[in-house]
Amino acid sequence: MAVPAPISVSRDLFPFPRAPFASSSTSLVELHRASLRASTIFGHKLKSDETEQTHLRLSKFLRSSPGLTLKASREPAELTQQLRNNNLETEVKAENGCDLFDDLKYRFLSFKRHKYLENLEHFQDLSNGQSPKFMVIACADSRVCPSIILGFQPGEAFILRNIANLVPPFENGPTETNAALEFSVNSLKVENVLVIGHSCCGGIRALMSMQDNEKSSSFIRNWVVVGKNARIRTEATVCNLTFDQQCRHCEKESVNQSLSNLLTYPWIEEKVAKGELFVHGGYYDFIDCTFEKWTLDYRGSKNDKNGRFAIKDRSFWC
Ligand SMILES: [Zn+2]
Predict the structure, then answer these.
(1) Which family does it belong to (predicted)?
(2) I need a labelling partner for 299 at 20 to 30 A (CA). Which of 94, 136, 154, 277 fits?
(3) Segments forming the whole domain that contains residue 249
């Protein structure tokens, strides 16, 4: 009887680091184990936990690659049964959410190897302090991470994310948003504040759905009411449009409202007036992947006899 051919799976299918780190004994052990798993993936001496880890990733890969099937029928019955058992264990682990943290673990180790250790001097400098050029206020929506879409690296941007990327006015009192603003503007002395709105914003939709003087126990509604003036201007300007189109308009209008609200903080307006701080609006459309950027024209706004909000340096990235 012919010896069955081994199942061949490239090591590139497994996203964990392959080489040990030089500077961390913990990482060395971890990566050595990872390397063992990769090189002996279908060896007969795998320990049970290592087999489990291997199949966890393999199972996930196979789920995302329907064109690839294992030729398990060519394997000894014992191994085929082992594959079935491990798949069952994998499903149990997946239901418990364990594989999510396995993914995070390997992503972290990959970051450590490919970003942190390869830029060790930079990260050691960052451990002594930060001097970001940007303070960014973006929505908490999982699809609009500023570090992903604008490529901010560690140390480059002090980022705050809240529902609908809103900045409340000074008179509203303390919130986590203005606490972050105070720290970044007065202590870190950032040179730019960038407020980023986005398409399909659920927070703006909640704002647009509110009725005037509506009392609510919802934390969401009591937060998004901060953008009430943007909603009123939207309804006055584009009342002929559909509700969805009005929401889209309000997503940008609320960014401008937030830029205006930034100037209600005396320590922000003072720096903007001196040209030490610039406030910008941004809008990320993730339907067609475009980004619009504009800058508040402080002098233009102040000099406008009708008190209109002026912007400059508008650009559209597509
Ligand atoms: Zn949003």
Answers:
(1) Belongs to the beta-class carbonic anhydrase family.
(2) 136
(3) 130-317
Number of domains in the chain: 2
Instruction: Identify whether residues 192 and 135 lie together within a single domain.
Output: yes
Indicate whether 147 pLDDT > 70. Answer: yes
- Spacing, Cα 250 to ligand 1 middle (Å): 12
* pLDDT tens-digit series, residues 240-250: 999 999 999 99
pLDDT at 68 over 60: no
Those residues whose beta carbon sits under 5 angstroms from the ion ligand 1 are: 139, 141, 201, 203
pTM above 0.85, yes or no: no
φ/ψ (deg, to 5) at 186: -85, -35
- Contact in structure between 273 and 297 (CB atoms under 8 Å): no
CA–centroid distance, 101 to ligand 1, in Å, is 26
Distances (CA, A) of 126 to 153, 154, 190, 310: 11, 8, 16, 37
The answer to whether the CB of 50 falls within 8 A of the CB of 37 is yes
